[in-house]
């Protein structure tokens, strides 16, 4: 959150300061290349099962290294920061961030290697989006096609969601592939835990279906 550490300057500058989980979540740590996380979940029916997550850097320079990881994945989790409608890419100041997310999403959806991989779409940072809208930042100023629609969280989020859904529909190599969209604020750990549990169930269900088809 902008200003997060500055608001907490006294706490984070004490000699005995030790970062809380929330501090770690709020840190801006750029992912460079691909980072692998291997873990087991403490709760749930499938105790002891290994989960592997590959976290890939979103910067344009880092995208060409993704392809080898697409070969054998159960699901793709695509995060698009929809609060960024009024921002441009750091690496190319002419490109609107949502426009870039949509283009990237199109290439992921159309990728043949991913034809059978279900896609989970997180339209993320809705807390920041809501704050921006409340502060009077107008979506239609940056996204002309938004037109006269109300400058409120629900219609704005639905509008962006419909854009992403349309891209998925147009560019899927496999008609059966499903898209699992969610509006998220990933820094809210409680809501995110429930969401991750849904995603986990979807992946397990899909794996079960695939293995019973074999
Ligand atoms: N308020 C808010 N902050 C978020 C949310 N999701 C991520 N952030 C913050 O946004 C910043 C960037 O998040 P990262 O996960 O590091 O970004 P990234 O998309 O992985 O970026 P790259 O690693 O460069 O690809 C961090 O400071 C996060 O705490 C959210 O839903 N709400
Ligand atoms: Mg990252």
TrEMBL record:
Listed SUPFAM superfamilies: P-loop containing nucleoside triphosphate hydrolases, Transducin (alpha subunit), insertion domain
Query: So which domain of life are we looking at?
Result: Eukaryota
The name this protein carries in UniProt is G-protein alpha subunit
Q: Where does GTP bind?
A: 25-31, 124-127
| Gene Ontology BP terms | adenylate cyclase-modulating G protein-coupled receptor signaling pathway
Stored PROSITE patterns: G_ALPHA
**What's the short name of a Pfam family annotated to this entry?**
G-alpha
The entry lists its GO molecular-function terms as: G protein-coupled receptor binding; G-protein beta/gamma-subunit complex binding; GTP binding; GTPase activity; metal ion binding
Any one cellular-component term (Gene Ontology): cytoplasm
Q: Which organism is it from?
A: Tulasnella calospora MUT 4182
Amino acids binding Mg(2+): 31
User: Keywords on this record?
Assistant: GTP-binding, Magnesium, Metal-binding, Nucleotide-binding, Transducer
């Amino acid at each position: 959150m902008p200003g997060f550490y500055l608001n907490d300057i006294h706490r984070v500058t004490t000699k005995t300061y030790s970062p809380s989980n929330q501090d770690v979540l709020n840190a801006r740590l750029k992912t460079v290349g691909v980072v692998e996380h291997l873990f087991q979940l403490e709760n749930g029916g499938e105790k002891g099962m290994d989960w592997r997550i590959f976290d890939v850097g979103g910067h344009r320079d880092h995208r060409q290294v993704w392809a080898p990881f697409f070969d054998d994945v159960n699901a793709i989790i695509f995060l698009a920061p929809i609060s960024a409608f009024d921002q441009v890419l750091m690496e190319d100041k002419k490109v609107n961030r949502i426009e870039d997310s949509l283009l990237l999403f199109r290439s992921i959806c159309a990728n043949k290697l991913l034809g059978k991989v279900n896609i989970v779409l997180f339209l993320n940072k809705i807390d920041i989006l809501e704050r921006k809208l409340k502060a009077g930042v107008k979506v239609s100023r940056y996204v002309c096609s938004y037109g006269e629609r109300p400058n409120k969280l629900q219609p704005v989020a639905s509008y962006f969601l419909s854009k992403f859904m349309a891209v998925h529909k147009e560019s899927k190599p496999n008609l059966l592939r499903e898209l699992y969209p969610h509006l998220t604020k990933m820094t809210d750990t409680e809501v995110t835990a429930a969401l991750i549990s849904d995603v986990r169930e979807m992946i397990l269900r899909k794996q079960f279906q695939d293995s019973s088809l074999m």
